[in-house]
Amino acid sequence: MKKFLAVSSLALATALAGAALPAQAADLPAAPVYKAPVYEPWNPWMIRLRALGVITDNSGHVDQVLGSGLSTSDTVVPELDISYFFTRNIAAELILGVTKHHVTGTGVPATNGLDVGKAWLLPPTLTLQYHFTDFGAFKPYIGGGVNYTFFFSQSAGNVANGAGVAVTNSHLKDSFAPVAQFGFDYMIDKHWGWNVDVKKIWLRPNWDGTLNGVTPVSGKVNLDPWLVGTGITYKF
Length: 236
Hints:
This protein is mainly beta. 11% of the residues lie in helices and 57% in strands. It has one helix and 15 strands, in the order αβββββββββββββββ. Strands 1-4-5-8-9-11-12-15 form an eight-stranded antiparallel barrel. It is rod-shaped, with a radius of gyration of 36 Å. It starts with a helix and ends with a strand.
């Protein structure tokens, strides 16, 4: 009889313990559910379309005329920029555009007011940049690189100045130049932004010409332009 009572008590205790387990489990907090982050592929390409002011340095000289000077006109043109990001901080930028400039003489009477000529410039410029990424939507950068300027559709002035001197042939020579750069993008959203960019190019091409159809001359035109641009950014 004692043995039967002991077995019955053990069975009752086991049953009560089993019934309590669901209640205790129901009181435990639910395990948190974690969702995998949404992965957005990173695209390294960026383009910009800018209005570009080309502000030249009004200096230069004709070798054979002591005290001579040369002045180059400024201009505003559209410009396309293509950038490729090797990392989120390091990028290469290529700018494409064409500009037209007019060169005139200054200084002594022989060159003062002299219409030297006009030329179109194709100045592809490649820079390597470092982009700062710790300022939210404001993304400044600095860079440096190289420019190679092609001169085409060149024409001489063919008009005599007050001293009776006329340039009857004018030719600017293609030239390499170093470049320094700084600027920023302000991103409105993950694709669109506004850009401000400034470059300095130390461009000093050699020049050959002919005066009054008979006298060969040479010189150097110190363009040394500032390129000041602003426009729309699109990040792919």
